[in-house]
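Hey,
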Amino acid sequence: MQQEKEDIRKERIKLQTANIERGRIDRNISRQELYYENVGSLVTSLPLPEFKPLIANTQNKSEYLVSIADVHFGACFTSENNKYSPEIAKERFEFLTGELIDFIYAHAANKLHIVSLGDLIQGLLRISDLKLNDSTVVKATVEISRIMAKFLNELSVYTEIEYYHCPSANHTQLRVLGAKASELADEDLEYLIGNYISDLCKDNNRININLADEGKQYIQIPIKNYEIIAMHGHQVKNVDTSIKDLSMLRRKFLDYLILGHYHSGKEIPSSESMYNDTEVLVSPSFIGSDPYSDSIMKGGKSSVKVYGFSELRGHTETYKFILN
């Protein structure tokens, strides 16, 4: 009898232990499900705007690419010729929206290609970034995603939008546990921002969000059958030879490479094709000059460039919108 009682007691303890462990697992699963439900309730798509009829384009056969680079949202500073903060960044996006609406009407553009070239947030690349950041990295990530989605939504009132999001940059990297630059290349907030923008714009049929394939450091932009790719530019060792280097890497000739990262606009010829030049098109920065650029006596106005591509001659037009 004593042995049977002891056996029963052990079985009860085993059952209680199993129930405790099962309860812990169930709580973890339920906690995750609740988290996803709460996030899902917040990440709702933007309300559809009141669309205007698309402009009939019967004469102008060019297609236009808007390049937005180095927004560094969250940074806050005053430099020699520039002042920047999240509020100023929002004002610049509003100004850019108005300028692009005028551009759409002036050029009868019934479609705009828009590419984000990375470094949308200031991030925490260095300890010195703690002095520049106006808010947390998480808050800046959410805010810039919504600002970009609103920007696309407002432009879609007047034209169709093809949006391309570069998958990686240096300021959006998460360098955890003392990791070195690009050591954890997949830990990049650009991936999160691009997917967040996609979710916010999912109900707008005039906006098509293009995200890079898994594992790629660049995104392809199909315009007029030209081979165009865009990337942030921190991976490029030599800008002058970058088209040749990437053509060899991909085993496919490249017509145009669109870069950010360098904070000043350049158009660098590489070679020539049958009817067009192959070029590296470096976009200026949205943030403009900052204390670091002042320290090395280099800088540029906050600006965004629009590149025009014709079917025969490729890149033949460049427009620059200065924002400060």
